[in-house]
Structure formats: structure tokens, C-alpha cells
Records
---
Amino acid sequence: WINLSKWLVKQNMDVVTVNPHHVKRNKENRDNTQSKSDKKDALVIADMVKNGYYAFVRSTSESFEKLRVLMANRDVIVKRLVSSINQINRWVDVVFPELRQVFKDVSCKGAIATLRLFPTPAELCSLQPQDIVTGWKSCMKRHSGHKKARSLLVLAKRSIGTKQALDAYKLHLGQLLEEYDLASSQLERVTQEVTNVLEQIPFVNQILAIKGISEISLAGILGEAGDLSGFAHGNALLRHAGLHLAEASSGKWKGQIVLSKRGRSRLRRYLYLATMSLVMNNPEFKALHSNNVKVKKIKKMKSIMKLCGKLARVLVGIARNGSAYKPEMVFPLEQLAA
């Protein structure tokens, strides 16, 4: 539908979308049956459009579309990278579990260099500390030193790792390292491209000036939401993300108020991550969160969700007005007066 909608926009026609979930819920309104066919779907959609149950397609500039594509691609690359690291950890558990006593993180440069050059304890046992250091120097500018090389040799000689099928394990490790290298290089390229695209958007510098907002989280928000200046209010951004509240009640009974989650899931994730980063690093958001939890006795997660709304209003305000970030954007008037 994307290419069709772009063509219709070029023909100066209004383009709207109808939520498929709503179509499924409304299909019994016409004939009170759960039947489904192409003709019935068309009639249901026409009724919904007639009654105003639709959303306009928000056209975005090329920069925002680039961010959406790049961030979706980045999510796939990160999953592959994490998967390869997990499999390398499993390989180390089987073949050389003592490696973690020298390198706490198996994905650090020293551990990866060791796995490339001499992965099995049997290969290490035939070397001297100087040979290990020389190998590290060929892969790293800053190597781990003779002390760790000697520790590695001692652990290799009394390793409890498997001694069988080492050729197959080495082949498997080589393929895992190739996947790790490929995902790492692709992630660097995508990150650099995201940085280049962000430089083309006018209000990005004002938002990045907020302590705690990273380029990746902002790129994720802009990629999913598009031009923030097109939103009338921060609450519209929350509704777009599915972070607005929903309540079920009947008569005297009132159900629990929950997040609707009827919106873009990736936008929800990046708004949440950005808010968590602000709570940890930004003094204004940290103070608001502390006041919510300690003074107002609000649960921590509920406070984070409230601050997501605050962040959405700040972002939309900066995008619409082009103004710089100021602490009074975050604090209520009564707190500023105090």
C-alpha cells in the first residue's frame, strides 16, 4: 500500500488508512456473522471511512524515511550481533571455560583476539608467554600484557574443557567470529549513516543538547514518529506510540487503567529507553522521578511512564518552536516557584 499511497498523494488525493484490527472487530456489524470475504471487507472498510474511523497518512521527508529504514536495519543487525556473542559464550563454556578468569567479557578485544589466534587450551600449552603477547600485538594496539599471558597458560594446562572433536569446534568458532565481525562492521556503518542523516534535520541539535539523550534513541524516535513539528501536542505523540491510557468500566465497577499499546511498538521502546537514560543522567528528570517516588509515593514504573509523557511534550515543543532546552520545560510552575 505504501507505493499506492505515494502515487495517490501525487494525484492530489487525500489518503487515509484503516486499522486492520478495527476492521476485524467491525466485520460482524453488517450481518452479525463471523464470515469474511473480499467483498465484505471492502464494505466494512467503506463504512468505517464513512464514519470517520480512519487515520490520515502522514507524509514525511526523505531524512525521516531514511532514519526509519536505518533503525529497522539496525535492530536486525543488533539481534545478529547478540546472537553471535551468545553462541561464542556457549563455545567457550564447552571448550575453554577458564578463559573467563582472564577476560570477564568474552566479547572484549583481548578475548576475541585470543580466540582468533589460539582458541583451544592445547594450542596455548605449546606456547610461551612472549608468543602470546606477540600474537596480541598483531591484533591490538593495547594488549593485555605478560601477566595475563602467564595466567592464560596456567589455566590452559589445567583446563577442564572438552578434548574431543576440536577440529569441528575450531571450524564452528571461525564461522561465529566471521558472523561477529560482519555484524560489528555493519553496525558501525549504520551508526555512522544515522549520524549523517541526523545532521540534516534542523531541530536535532537542540534536542541532543539535553543531557541524557543519545543519537540512537533520538533517531529511533524520529524514524518512527517522523517530523515532530507535525504533532499538535506531546499527547499526540504518545497516542501515536500507544502510550495513552485506556480504562474499562461499567456502572459502579471500574477496571484498572492501563496503557493502550495501540501504536508503534518501536516508538514506545525508544521513548522508554530515552526516558530511562534521562532519569539516570539528566538532573531535572532525575529530580522529578525522585519527587514522584519519595514524596508522591508513586510506583517507580508509573513514574517512568509519566516522565515519558513529559519527554514527549518537551520534544514536540522544541521541534515546533525551535527553542533550546530549558529546565523550566520540565519542572511544574509550583516547583520552580519553590
---
Amino acid sequence: MANSSVCSRHFKTGEIVLSAKGRRKLKPGTVPSIFRWTKPSRPGVWEHCPRAAATGGEDGAADDNSAASGSNTGMEMDCEPAQTPPVPMIEDHDYAESPFITVDRSKYTDMCKEIEELRQQLESQHLTLRFGLQRFASSKEDIRFYTRFPSYEHLMAFWYLIQEATTRMVRVNSAQRNLSSSTSTESPVTRPTKLLPIDELFLFLNYLSTGCTQRELGHKFNIHRATVSRIIVTWANFLYTLLGSVSIWMTTDAVKANRPVDFNGTYENTHVILDCTEMRCQTPSSLLLQSEVFSTYKSHCTFKALIGMSPHGALTFVSALFEGSISDKEIFRQCGITSLLTPEMEAMVDKGFLIDELVSGKVHRPAFLSKEEQMPEVDVLRTQSIARLRVHVERLIRRVKENKLFDTVIPLSISGSISQIFTVACLLTNYQYGPLVKKWAHAE
């Protein structure tokens, strides 16, 4: 019939050809001949026994006579069957077979439940073996240890603030490949690492909090050490730009609105409390660099920075890192805070900040003994009152240095990005912690 269809497997090779238009068709006179019951033809007698080649002349006639007379030579020939290639048995199709499979309903339900349980076990096992944020989401102690955030909810609240900006993150390797362009964007589809953005943030916070080496982080997150280095530098620059774009310097009205009662009276106009902190660094091989970064106070090569705090405990200023040999006064001169202070803003500092001629406002500083044998009573009381309030900036610095990276000797290999990393660690304290003093909680 013209409209009938037969499977192509029922035809021999060469019986199906292509037309000029590229359509398959059968040769004229071709019929289906390959079925399950088709068997190869049985070889004949002459195909079983090989025959000697016929020769002409008398020799040929002699051979014919000897074969006709039934000589022993002809009868003793080894008649072995010829080796024929095996013919594959192609099974026919069951065109009446139903596409649906009939199974026991209860057995099918039990199998589905078992598959779902095995899938959940596999996912839980994967989370247990994988070192990532989701593994520690249920433990406040682990989140605190690895990120310095008090809980998983606090960390996710911070993540939601920066999540949208991560799509426009400029990566280190992207910047190197696109030197001609000023900006480069990355999408989750074209990301150069196999980690999710939130896991990269977790890696960066883990690096700050635990101070472990990049090789160790590579083993934890199952990535190469060079990839860890690129992630750290990328996120340091990203958070430095993103968090640094938010103004943390407070206005006079905002400081007065959040001022604790401990500052009422003599120090009610105090706008910022300043202090310097130092971090040990690796000793450079150059003697000139050694002399620049060597700190006589720490008796070691250090980096030095200036940190400012509002009276209610929020970080309001952080400078770049300077060499350890610089004085507190010189850091104050170079860091740029002088342009932020106005005459009505008072500053509270330590003894090393001899900055009265650099600012127009009042400076609260502990008194010096000078050449006197004993400090006057009024100076003693003023020093005690200043120390009682200024100690809170030391507690803020301790919060920054709870990141173990700054407890170790900082290698010179990350000196190019250590200033951004330190600034980010300082800015994160405004998101990671509560008030310095519990009774100041209402000022938050």
C-alpha cells in the first residue's frame, strides 16, 4: 500500500537509497526480508569441501580419471566446512505493544518514598562534606568563629545589602584581561570560579577571622591556592569600594542625638575619640624599608593606622596604613581628618597626639607630668575622667583585632592589598557587633 510504513531495520544494506531531494526511498522491487524467523541458507556440499584447482592438458585428464576411479588420494581429502560469518539475528518489533507499563501501585509508592529518602540523605551528606556557609548555618558559635557575625541571620541581612552590587563586581583576573576597558562586569553564568558569591564572601570573612593561610583555604573549599588569592583581593577591593562609599562620618546633630550620658558636662561636645593601632609585619630584606617600617614602641616592623570613634561607640573614621616609624601626630596630619573637623567639634586623644595647632576645635588629652615632681590634683582628676571615656576606643580596636589575621605577622606578599583588607575589617565592625556598652543600647 502506498501509505504503509515499515521499519528500516527489516531491509538489507543498500536497499535504502537517498533521492535527489535528500529523502530516503526504497529501490524498485525491494521487499522486507529481515525478520526474527529469517535463517541463513544452508551451505551446499561443494561449499563444505574445498576442491583442487583444475589444470589443463594431460595432467588435468589424469586428475579427472583418478577422481572418477575413486582413488585413495581423492577419498582422503580433509573435508572441513567453510567458515561463514555469523548472521546477526534481528528481532522484529512488537507494533501492538502498549507504551504504558503496568506496575503495582503500592510497590511504586514505596519505591518513590525510598528514592526521596535517599536523595535527602545524599544532600545532607553533601552539605556535611562541603565546607561552606550552609554547613554552619545552624550553629551561632561556628558563624561567630568563622565570620565574626553574631548569627546566621545577621550575616544574611548584611548579604542582602550587598547582593545586588555583586553582579557588577570587577574581578582581578577580569581586570587583567580587559586592560583597555575601565570597567568589567561578571554575571553568575560567566563567573571564573565554581564558588557562589555568598561562599566567596564566606571565604573572605574566614580569611579575616581565622587568619589561616591561603593554601589551607584552598584545601577547605576545594579550589586552587591562586584562586583563593584572587578571591581575597577581589572581595577586599569590592568591599573597600562599596562600604567606603557609605559616609560613616557623623554630623554634630547626629552625635549629640546619640551621645551617652557619661559624656554630659565637660565632654558633651566631644565629636570623635582617636587612637592609633599597630600590626606586626614581615621584616623586609631591604635595610631602607626596615628603617621605615620599624616601630620603636613594638620593637618590630609594623603597619600603623588611625581609628576614630563617636562617643556612642560607632566607628566613624579609619585611615590608610602607614609605616610603623611614623608618629601619631604625623598620621593625624596626613590621614585627612583635619578637613572633617570644624571649630565646634572637640576631639579626645591620647598623649602622643600633640595636634593643638592642627585643629581649630578643643582637644581633650591627658595631662603631662612635665618637670613637676607630682601631678596637680586637678590634672589627675582630668586624666582619670578622660581615660575612663577614652578606653572605649581601645575596645573598638580590640574588636578589629579579633580577626586573627592581624594577630599574626602579616606577610609582605599581601602588602599590596593589606590596607584595603584592614579598612574593610574596620568598617565591618559597624555591621557585626552591637554597642560597646550595654547601657548604650538605646543609642543604636
---
Amino acid sequence: MLVFIARRLFVSIWVFLAASVLVFILSTNVRDPLAEARQLPETARESAIRVITERMHLEDPVLVRYFRWLSDAVTGNLGVNRQGLDVNARLETAFSATLQLITGATVLAIIIGITIGVISALRQYSALDQTVTFIAFVCFSLPLFWVGTLLKQFLALDFNDWLADPVISPLFIGGIALITGLFCGGVVVGDRRSRITAFVSSTAAMAILLSVLSATEWFSDPSLGPIVVALTAIGGAIGFTTLVSGLEWKPPLQAALIAAAVGIVAYFALDPVLDDPQLLTIVLLLLVTVGICFAIGWFLGGDLYRRNAIPAAVLTGVFTGAVIFVDRMLSSFQSYSASVNNRPISTVGAETPNYEGTFWESGLDSFGHLALPTLALVLISLATYTRYTRASMLEVMNQDYVRTGRAKGLSERAVVTRHVLRNGLIPITTLIAYDIGTIVGGAVVTEQVFGWSAMGSMLFDGIREGDPMPIMAFYVVSGGAIVLFNMVADIAYAFLDPRIRLS
């Protein structure tokens, strides 16, 4: 594998350098960098042209300028832009903003898209499958700028106004309850009676839940509380155990339930620590959670069930910690909303200027600014992952070894998780790696719609000003990410498909 990585790295470096030459030549000819200086009054024109010419070395041939940039870039110096500002500083700010913008959207799109794709494949040609297909094609066809504008108007502005009197109308309650019931009824695998039971129970449960939340005005001061946290943790333990090993195996279920119990105890024990923590504290708590849950799965699983008990316990522990995190953040919603004039969902920018608050209030501020662009990117990207996953799953489900697994008496869960899903994810790996590599370059349209100054904006500014330095800084990050993540995809193939050997 080391030989393969070294060979791929050697080839990738030459591809990266060859592409950098092409990008540099194109960026120097995209626009005249002296166009604005030539429009100045005659008294200042010559001086401005001379300064820009010297700063950008416009008198030198293009290849000389390229090798000057390359020699500086190797040392980490990406030069200065047309105004004489340090490109490294601009890149650091832009890259940080891009990571905030695309990380959550990418993770959500991958998780939700693959999950819906798997369910759609398992329920092929059902009403759920046809509905998902229709919604996926609609989302895939929508222009991003139009989606962003609609979200700003009908989600952010209307939601902020609604929070002043958070009462849910009976029509809305009925619509959401009906959609929930149809989804649950479509997901359940069984006879018609089982699907009808799931539809009726989930519809009634959602209607009752929304009615209670509306009557208590929960949305104006939301929090989960210890009872909801405990029930959610136990439900997560059962769900993750079912996914990993099935409930017929007791040790994994016991490990997951103990991990949930430890999380519930930590909910009360860590109350002073979580009052206003630092980010480092949250990271350390996450690492401690993983370590404790790993130990629980290791000892309770034994030699026979350890392989399933460890992931069940770790997933339950991390999930319980995430629920506690959400509960603490929601508890600070009322104070944060009051500090931003009851407009918690923002439509412009990455943060509230000069805002100072607790850790949880600052987190809500970041979430309020990320909500709309993240949702817009998820809606557009979701369709791709859903359709690719569904097609890949259906192709694998028709293979001979899947039918053989069922004929040997393996449970449907084992067939789906161990054989179908693992092999079905192989082509999805390429899609994920390519998407992550490309979106690191920023989402230009999204940034423009929501007023973010990130990687896409830096590229756009460089093109508009005819300045190759910001464009090349953009290329270094985005091109490097594409090369890196494509190599990661190749390596991941060997772990997903034992038939592939990288030696």
C-alpha cells in the first residue's frame, strides 16, 4: 500500500503542477488588471499604473511570473493581491468560513442521502420509493439561488415573525402528522396490517406532540429536559443495537444500554462543567465518552460478541452526548433570541457583528447564520446521494452472493448491512471524495446569496480584478483537496472491497 500511495502521490504532484501552469496563464488573461487605474484622472493615473505594474510584475513574461509565484508558494508565501494585501491572511479567513459553511451541509447530505437511498432501494417501487424519487428530481432541478431566496423569505423571515407568538395551526399539525405517518408506514417492512398500524400510531403521536408543543409555547423557550434525554438515549441504544447486531444478541444490547445509562448520569453530574464550557472541554468530553464506551463494549461483549458490542456502545454514547449538547444549547435559546432582537435565524453573513455571549449562545449564533445556507446546500446535494445510493443498492441486491446469503438463512439485517450496503457503498465512495474535494473550493452562488465572504468570493474577486494571486491561492486549496480526497477514495476501496489490492 505504501508503494501505491507513493506512486499516486508522485503522479498527482505532476498533474497538480501542470494544471497550475494552465490556471496561472488563464488567470493572467482573464481581465486587464490596469483597467481601473486607466480610468483615474491624469494626475494619478501614471502613479497608480506604475505601482500596480511593479506589485504584480506585469512587465515580466507570464512564465517568469509563474515560476516566481511557484518558488514563493513552495515556502508557503502566496504573495500579495493587487491592492498589496497579504493573500495568506485572506486565504486563512476565507478557508475558515468555507469550512463552517460546507462541513455541516456535506455531512448531513451524505448521511441523510445515503439513508434515504437505502430505504428507497429496500422498498423499491413502493409509494415511499416513488415519492422519494419525485422529491429527489425536484430538488436536483432547483437552481440554488432561487432556493436560497425562498428560504430567506418563507423560512427565516416568517419563522422569526412566528416566534413572537409560536402557536401552530391545526392545518399545519395535520399536514406534518400525515407526512410523518406516510413516511413511517412506508418504511415499515411487513404486511398491510403492520404498515397501517405504523401509519396510524405515528400520525397520532406526531399530532399529539405538536399540539402539546403549541399549547405550552415550547418554541419560545425550548429545552429537552432529563426525561426526554433519558428516553432518547434508551431509544438510541435500542436502535443502534438493532442496526449493528440485532436485538437477539444480548451482550451488544446490554453494552448499549449501559452506555446510555452512563450518559444519563453524566447529564446531571456534569451540569457545572457544561454551564459555560470551552470548545476544548467539549472535545475532551467526547474523547472520554468514546473511551468509556469502548471499554464497556470490550468487557461486556467478550470474545464472541465484542465486534458488535463495541460499535453499539460507542454509537450510543456519542449519540447520547449529542442529545445532551442539543439540550444545553436549546436551554440558552430564549436569552440568545432576546439579545438579537428576536431574530435568531439570520439571512446575511457568517456571524453577528461584535456579538459576545456564552459558549451556548455563541453556538446558537453560528447555527442561526449557518441554518439557511446549509439547508440550501443539503436540498441540492441530497438528490445526488439518494439516487446514486438507490441505484448502487439495487444493483448489488440482484447479485448471486446476496441470494446465496438469504438461502443460507442469514437475517435480512445481516444481508443488508454486511453484504449489500458494504458493496453498494463502493461507487458512493468516489462520489463523496469528489464532492468533498470540490466543495472545499467554496460555493460561489451560496456565498453570494447569503453574504458569506469565503473561498468562492475570493475566487470571484480575483477574476473580477484580473488578479492571479487570489485565483492561485484558491487553486492551491481546491486542487490539493481534489488530489488528496481522490487518493483517499482509492485507499478506501481496499477496505470496502477485499477483492481490490493496492499492492
